[in-house]
Design brief:
Strand content: 15-25%
Shape: globular
Order of helices and strands: HHHEEHEHHEEEEEHEHEHEEHH
Helix content: 25-40%
Strand order of the largest sheet: 4-3-5-12-6
CATH superfamily of the largest domain: Periplasmic binding protein-like II
Largest sheet: 5 strands, mixed
CATH architecture of the largest domain: 3-Layer(aba) Sandwich
Number of helices: 11
């Protein structure tokens, strides 16, 4: 094996492994898929053996690739404190907060409750339906629909989230609307799969909750959304009752070593307070307009 493997190539390897292909790694890093592909081939040549199984559906790791991934994750986690130490000398520390589209919009609309100019930290909203790796310092805080499961993570409950169907308020013939759904290949949340199991007519597919929301607002159909998202939009109306089987509990998850850091503790307390103040909205008890059946 060549001992001159660059850390930048290992970080690219990490992105390819975690996203399952070159396209996902390109979206994360800003590099082109072709460039990343060439660098992965070079990395395999340096390693002296294949690291990926390549298929039309994406990249999966070989046994050697899986072993390398575990080591690179450890290296990445160890590098985070070093970066924070160096960054602290030149810029305000950054807290990376991961959440789904609807939750991010809920928080962004109330940004002044989360952050103040003299806080001494900046916020980076990482909007994704995927679960980011807190244990290996991919993010600092994550809002999830289940509590922490690993021993090196800590969590606290935030509140009850409910879901309902929504349509555009301005549609003249709502009875003619089909449904707007997240396509199965991009559905990561139970709500994304639920609609495909109901036997309804799905007129439009999209790859994200943000796109579903935009399409529903435009009158393309009826879409399932968290009530905190749908009920906050005056352009939308309920198109049916709350879907109780999608009800979930959200939790704030963080690394156990970080929960006593003053900036993390302060932000976590503000997020918890924000959820407590909006219990009815989160639980679907404050629709802007009456329910339409």
């Amino acid at each position: 094996m060549d001992e001159k493997i660059a850390w930048d190539d290992l970080r690219l390897f990490l992105h390819v492994a975690e996203t399952g292909g070159l396209s996902g790694a390109a979206r994360r890093t800003g590099s082109s898929a072709a460039t990343i592909g060439r660098r992965m081939l070079t990395l395999e040549q340096q390693a002296g053996q294949p690291l990926f199984h390549r298929a039309l559906t994406g990249y999966t790791l070989t046994q050697v690739g899986q072993a390398l991934l575990e080591r690179v994750r450890v290296m990445q986690a160890a590098a985070v404190p070093v970066r924070e130490l160096l960054a602290a000398q030149t810029e305000t520390p950054l807290i990376r907060l991961s959440a789904g589209t609807a939750t991010t919009m809920f928080l962004a609309d109330r940004f002044s409750r989360l952050h103040r100019p003299d806080d001494g930290f900046r916020l980076n909203f990482v909007t994704t339906e995927a679960i980011m790796d807190i244990a290996h310092r991919e993010i600092d805080l994550g809002i999830r629909n289940r509590p922490a499961e690993a021993g090196n993570l800590a969590s606290c409950p935030l509140g009850t989230i409910r879901f309902a169907p929504y349509r555009s308020w301005s549609v003249a013939r709502p009875e003619l609307l089909g449904w707007v759904a997240i396509d199965p290949s991009h559905a990561r949340h139970p709500a994304g799969h639920w609609l495909h199991q109901q036997g309804v007519t799905i007129s439009v597919l999209a790859s994200s909750m943000a796109a579903v929301h935009a399409l529903v607002r435009a009158g393309a159909g009826i879409g399932i959304m968290p009530c905190m998202f749908g009920d906050s939009d005056p352009a939308l109306a309920r198109a049916g009752p709350i879907i109780e089987e999608l009800t979930e509990q959200q939790h704030l998850v963080m690394h156990d070593d970080d929960r006593h850091r003053p900036p993390i503790r302060r932000l976590a307390a503000r997020i918890s307070a924000l959820y407590n103040e909006n219990t009815e909205l989160l639980a679907g008890l404050r629709p802007l307009r009456g329910q339409i059946i």
